[in-house]
Amino acid sequence: MVFKAGNKTPKNIPPIMLGGTPLQVVTRFKYLGHVITDCLADDQDIDRERRALAARGNMLARRFARCTTEVKMTLFRAYCQSFYSCSLWVRYTQKAYNALRVQYNNVLRMLLGLPRFCSASGMFADARLDDFYAIMRKRCASMLRRFRVSTNSILATLADKIDGPFIRHWVGVHVREGVHVPN
Predict the structure, then answer these.
(1) Euclidean distance between CA atoms 29 and 51, whole angstroms
(2) What is the largest CA-CA distance in the chain?
(3) What is the rounded distance in angstroms from the CA atom of residue 52 to the CA atom of residue 55?
(4) Which site among 49, 50, 85, 148 is 20 to 30 Å from 108 CA-CA?
(5) Is the CB of residue 173 less than 8 Å from the CB of residue 180?
(6) Domain of life here (predicted)?
C-alpha cells in the first residue's frame, strides 16, 4: 500500500519484489480486522463495523425473539456494544459515523420489538443501556488510559502530545456529543 500525502498521489511507483515476486499495490487492506486505506480515512472501517453490527443484530433478533427483555439486553451488551477498533477512528465523515449510530439504535429497536421511530434516548434510558455516544466515549477513554500507562515509548509519546490528532479526537469525543470533523 502506498499512502497518499494529502491530495498528492505518487505517479511512478517502482515495483516492490518479495522473493522475486512483485507485490500488488492496493488502496485498502484489512489488518487485524481493521480496514486501512491509502488515504488513511476511516469511513470504510466504520462501514465494515456497521454491516457487522447489522448482521449480529439480525441474528440476535431472529434467534432470541421469544426470550425475555433482560436476556435480550444482556445479548445486546455482549454482541452489539464492542465496536472493535473504534478508538482508532480519527478521520471520518459525519455521514459514516451517523450511519453506524442509526444502525446501533435500530438494532436495539428491532431486538426489543419497538416501533421504528420511537425515541432513541428514551429507549436507552428505559433499558438502562449506554447509548452510542456513551459507548464511543468509554472506548476512547479506555484507549487513552492504556496509552498513558504503557511502557512503550512511542505510545507514551503519543499520549503526552496534548495537541496531537489522537488526543484532540479523544478529548473531543468526551466534550461534546457528536463527531470529530477532520481538519
Answers:
(1) 17
(2) 62
(3) 5
(4) 85
(5) yes
(6) Eukaryota
Q: Taking the model in full, what pTM does it have?
A: 0.82
Q: Are 89 and 95 a contacting pair, CB within 8 Å?
A: no
Strand partners, 44: none
Closest by CA to 88, choosing from 145, 60, 122, 46, is 46
For the chain, the three-class secondary structure string (H helix, E strand, C coil) is CCCCECCECCCCCCCCEECCEECCCCCEEEECCEEEECCCCCHHHHHHHHHHHHHHHHHHHHHCCCCCHHHHHHHHHHHHCCCCCHHHCCCCCHHHHHHHHHHHHHHHHHHHCCCCCCCHHHHHHHHCCCCHHHHHHHHHHHHHHHHHCCCCHHHHHHHHCCCCHHHHHHHHHHHCCCCCCCC
> What's the pLDDT tens digit per position in 58-71?
999 999 999 999 99
> Could you give the C-alpha distances from 176 to 94, 104, 123, 170, 171, in angstroms and in order?
14, 19, 21, 11, 9
- The C-alpha cell at 93 is 465523515
Q: Where are the domains of the chain?
A: 1-40, 41-175
